[in-house]
Design brief:
The chain has helices spanning 3-12, 14-40, 47-68, 84-116, 131-134, 136-157, 165-186. It has 187 residues and is mainly α.
Length: 187
């Protein structure tokens, strides 16, 4: 794999890697905290607070991953009687409204974190300025907007059909079920 291709792959999957790292880090930290309490009667003072912040970052970046995969919940059954273009246009309009909300919230959260947040607000146990923990808000909503716009670009200009992972899994299960039924009828 070339450097350019590897770099593109990293950028395309960065949220997933960071989510995996955060998940493993906060679960490990909490596990160590439990072991320390149970076996050594000692509690790491900063562990639960840092694990909570990691979980919040994990949740927001997980929403970005879901937006990237087009895995957010949508109600689409009402489009079945219509031509596919109606569904495509309606979902695009809904996505653009979602992007407008995200951009507005990105601006509000950026303004809060960098202009309105008290500089002396610090984490109680670590002493780290709270600004660094709250930076997930403008970051996540900005990235989510980019991922939604990118998906719409792929749909409209590259003719890529975005299928959420749950629908793909359901289709595979149905395919296996039909194959098994055919196999049982033939036996």
């Amino acid at each position: 794999m070339g450097v350019k291709k590897a770099l593109f792959h990293l950028v395309n999957h960065i949220e997933e890697y960071v989510c995996g790292l955060l998940l493993s880090a906060f679960v490990s930290l909490l596990f160590v905290q439990i072991l320390m309490r149970q076996f050594f009667a000692y509690s790491i003072p900063w562990a639960e607070e840092v694990a909570t912040y990691m979980f919040v970052w994990f949740a927001y970046l997980g929403a970005v991953v879901a937006a990237k995969m087009s895995a957010h919940n949508r109600v689409t059954f009402q489009f079945k009687p219509f031509p596919p273009i109606v569904k495509k246009v309606s979902e695009t309009v809904a996505d653009l409204i979602w992007v407008a909300f995200n951009v507005y919230f990105t601006w509000l959260s950026y303004d809060f974190v960098f202009n309105r947040m008290n500089l002396f607000w610090k984490s109680q146990t670590t002493g780290v300025p709270m600004k660094y923990f709250f930076m997930v808000l403008p970051l996540a909503f900005g990235l989510m907007s980019l991922r939604i716009l990118w998906n719409n670009y792929l749909i409209w200009f590259r003719s890529v059909e975005m299928v959420d992972p749950e629908s793909q899994e359901l289709a595979q299960i149905q395919k296996k079920s039909h194959a098994l039924k055919k196999q049982l009828k033939g036996a």
